[in-house]
Design brief:
Elements (H helix, E strand, L loop, with lengths): L1 H25 L1 H38 L2 E5 L5 H13 L5 E7 L1 H12 L3 H9 L2 H4 L3 E6 L5 H8 L8 E4 L5 H45 L1 H9 L4 H34 L10 H10 L1 H27 L7
Antiparallel strand pairs: 1-3, 1-4, 2-3
């Protein structure tokens, strides 16, 4: 008896799926419209995730490169420099991550390397007074870039004014660029979230009205099914299946669009944002998670929309 009951449930589930599938193809134009809108919704979600991940990686990369350089006057001893660096290291409030000492000779050698064979620049470097033009330098990095202001505050103390020539804090273009990039990342995240929510709401409304029209078109059929004793699940199930098919197809189309077009063309922007290529690689490695998740989200949106439509417009008298 138990085996027979289970077999009957499987047969009913198959029938519900077949009826829902037929309904999907029967309302072809409505199905296409609902699927397109949901595809746009899922595409927006994927693009927003990609852009957010890329920009956050870029912000992190640039942040790690931010430091403040402290330049010293000529003939300053290594011991005097160590006195300043020791104070910076011992101040726990600064959260100093790294202090790099660069001698005058190393600064000059780097300048010669950066000249890239330009004879005029090399002649200027050779004629310049190394200690004045290329002073001993200390580069300081902190865990929190906001703490660099505290580093500069110590370097500008009166007791160091005889050894410190200047610092790079005021004209730190990297810090300004990272702040701007961070603001852009936050804006795009919010814009992507708003777009995803907006299209998500539109998807729910479109599917809800599509199922509503399907319910009204099948009104006589539903009444007959109730009269012959069909269960609530047997009547409601096809509508849930139909909407879930919208979501599944939309998830597949959005994945094809994202991996085929977005990730396919993204590396061309690598010359502008170098973090794009690693992000593309990362998302390709995560494809086995992203694609099923996208399809599942589409199915859930479709099923939820159908549930709302059924609850509002499908009034059943049967108690089975």
């Amino acid at each position: 008896m138990k085996g027979s009951s289970f077999k009957r449930k499987l047969i009913n589930a198959r029938r519900v799926f077949v009826i829902g599938s037929h309904s999907f193809f029967r309302n072809a134009w409505l199905s296409v419209a609902a699927t397109i809108v949901m595809t746009i919704t899922l595409g927006c979600i994927l693009v927003t995730l990609f852009a957010s991940y890329t920009l956050n990686s870029a912000v992190q990369t640039f942040t790690e490169k931010i430091d403040v350089s402290i330049y010293f006057n000529p003939d300053v001893s290594k011991g005097q420099i160590n006195q300043l660096t020791s104070e910076l290291k011992n101040d726990d409030s600064l959260g100093v991550k790294e202090i790099t000492y660069i001698s005058s000779d190393e600064v000059k050698a780097q300048a010669q390397k950066d000249a890239d064979g330009d004879v005029k620049i090399l002649q200027t470097i050779a004629q310049a007074n190394s200690k004045i033009a290329f002073p001993d330098t200390v580069r300081v990095k902190t865990i929190d870039t906001a703490k660099l202001a505290g580093v500069v505050k110590i370097a500008r103390k009166d007791k160091y004014k005889d050894i410190v020539y200047k610092d790079s804090y005021k004209d730190n273009a990297k810090r300004t660029a990272v702040e701007r990039l961070g603001n852009i990342a936050k804006f795009l995240q919010r814009a992507g979230l708003v777009a995803s929510v907006l299209f998500g709401a539109i998807s729910i409304l479109v599917i809800l009205n599509t199922i509503r029209m399907t319910i009204f078109n099948r009104k006589d059929e539903i009444e007959i099914m109730q009269l012959i004793g069909a269960s609530k699940w047997y009547i409601r199930g096809p509508f849930l299946i139909e909407a879930s098919i919208y979501g599944a197809i939309a998830g597949i189309l959005a994945s094809i669009f994202f991996f085929g077009l977005v990730l396919g063309q993204a590396p061309k922007l690598g010359s502008y944002v170098e973090e794009i290529s690693p992000t593309v690689t990362q998302f390709n490695e995560w494809a086995w998670i992203i694609i099923p998740s996208t399809i599942l989200i589409g199915i859930l949106i479709g099923a939820f929309s159908s549930f709302l439509a059924i609850r509002k417009h499908l009034k059943l008298k049967t108690v089975k």
